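Lab manual, section 2.4: Encoding a predicted structure.

Procedure: take the sequence of the chain (851 residues), apply the prediction step described in section 2.3, and record the output as structure tokens. A sample record is shown.
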Amino acid sequence: MTDPFQVPYKCYKTGLLIIGVIATQFGCVFDEIPFREHPKTNFVDEIGVVLKKYQHVLSLEFAVKEVNENPKILPNVTLGFHIYDSFANARMTQQNTLKLLSSWKRIVPNFSCDMQNGLIAIIGGLDSDISLNMAALLSIYKIPQIAYSIFAPVKNPKIQLPSFYRTVPNEELQYTGIVHLFLHFLWTWVGIIAADDDDGEKFVQVLRKMLYQNGVCTAFSEKTPVLSHTLEMLQAFESIQSKGSLITNSKVKVLVVNAEPQTTACLIWLIYFYSVSENSAETSIGKVWIMTAHWDFSSQSEHRNFNIQVFDGALSFAIHSSHVPEFTKFLQILHPNPKKREDFIRVFWEKAFNCSLLDSSEHGESNNICTGHEKLENLPGFVFEMSMTDQSYSIYNAVHAIAQTMHKMYTFRPKLNTIMDRVRVDRPFFQPWQLHRFLKSISFNNSAGDTVSFDENKELQAGFDIINWVTFPNRSFLRVKVGRMDPQASAGQVFTINDEAITWHSMFNQELPVAMCNNKCHPGYSRKKKEGEPFCCYDCAPCPDGKFSDQIDIDDCFKCPEHQFPNRDKDQCLPKIVNFLTFGEPLGIILTFLASSFSLLTALVLGVFIKNKDTPIVKANNRDLTYSLLISLLLCFLCSLLFMGRPQTVTCFLRQTTFGMIFSVAISCVLAKTITVIMAFTATKPGSRMRKWVGKRLTNAILLASSLIQAAVCAGWLCTAPPFPDIDMHSLNDEIIEECNEGSATMFYCVLGYLGLLAFVSFTVAFLARKLPDSFNEAKFITFSMLIFCIVWLSFVPSYLSTKGKYMVAVEIFTILVSSAGLLSCIFFPKCYIIIWRPALNTKDQVIKKT
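Recorded output:
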């Protein structure tokens, strides 16, 4: 090539106003230029044509054709275009951008002697790197640049690139859509694949942060090498193959791919290497691929030999687009014109149909001659689509935005003559930088009915479509629109998706794929973090006692309301049962029967003693004291009934105080009887002064003094903190305890302590008097009865404290009955035996007989 700046592929259409375009369709290898040589461009090899991207050029031609044929837009003014290829190369991008800015087809910066150039705006590029390479030059001249790249070339293009516009939405909306998609399908364990460059790094950082904030874990984030041509791809075989975990990791079912061409090309090679090394079909991979809006499905010529069913059921985001019916008709009549040197269509036609045009000896790959009757609709979808893709739709909107802006400028001229409305002029009388005022505020409806306008960041005010890709064994496919991310929709409708319209990969048997680190925790369980693992990986721990969980995958179990308790599975709450000791339940019946029986027995004993009141054995040891003891024992048995039934104010008020007073009287009687025995024997000794103490005065004094002390304690209890009915919600998990709150636990234990003191004194005195003559002495019986009494009440304290609810009440009733029965049996049964069955022993001679 003699011209150091000659470019092999370009496309040109004359017009009064020219739209410059930097497309990306061809891939070439360029030689290295040492600094000692004059700058030049030599192509070493042409490595391929991205066939599907030729539609970008066709959508631009179609949009220009629409504008020129529409009398309502720019009347008497024709639009033209000048297209160069970027070759995905920074040097070629800048070189061809300079060609658009220069005259006479030579690069002469800052000088234009051909005023008929008419360049008004430039469209491009496809990715952020190409866009930035273009913007570096165009921003100097303030020429509007409308890009259709998914990622902005800089962090803040509004400030850093004031002449930069994009006919795509803000990429943040795409991140939000991916997060919404994962949350919708409950996918929490995903992988990320991106290129090892600035765009890939940005994609991974932003997405991982948003996923983490929404409870989604990243199993891995893998970087693919940036490879410029097939030779590097083959040389990087080992590097690519080492990333086999991306597709062999069976736990990671969902992979999100930043699907710009470099990454998808590397991914396809990776899948190919895996299928070869594992000797298995690619379709066995069984993943859900989530692709970004870069996704072109078949952006590499190698796809001709690639099994596209690997991507069956994939979901991708795409710039929102609508069907343009006239575009299909435009494609149906499209053929290369042999009279025109149209580089793009000639190369595309030969590559797509694998034939050679008659006047071509360079591009054809076979001896087949193109007949001229080839039709684009006969090409498989992975090579070329008849419907306008989202990227082509963006270019289509960009052309119309420029045309509408120019039309608005021509009609909005309050201080200028309207010469353009009457006569045709040979050149525009304005500069490209004047478009910005109108372009940034332009708003119109295109032929598909969509509103086209730019937001404050000079980005398209539109959303993303969610596409489901359905593939077939014959290498055909369907593009099904299943959802939308619409930032201008009402609340709750920003993200919409139709689950029933989605076709999943055949390995999932049309069931929703599961993407989790582990199985969900069912109701009745809560999540327990695994040490050293991401928060999405956890164990399931059963809810502790008293708690429940009625949801899936909760972090902690909840307490039931106070009036409810967890069921056996701990997945719901049930109403608590009211707990109190009733007369009708088996335990209540037994205790009532025992109390009634002992009361009746005590009454019978009292009747026997009254009937035989004049016998020596009854008269011995103070007959009145015996009657008092029997009556108090009778009342002890009956007072146990106060503890049964639903607690009421009166019963709670009387329970412990009545029991304490009656037992104090009973034990005081036992103490008085024991002291009477000792005093009687002491008084019988010659010269004893104890005779004056023997009699009723001593016993009454003991009985009255002992009882008054307990009465004072009970009175103080009732006056300061009396017992009252209460409800205990917490002691038992599944029951509500209705009980008598003692008011003051201190006073309660003071009453019991005083009873214990009386019992201990009685036991001690009786024990000291146990060796008195048997025929007169009942101290042995009293000793034994008090021993039983003390053992029972010492056992009562731990038993009482270790039980809850009605069983606590039952323990106290049982203790009262057993201790009272011990006094009754040990003191009175031997006497009853003599009175009833051995009356011969009940004589005065037997009573006074010495052993």
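Check your result against the sample. DSSP finds 23 helices and 27 strands in the chain.
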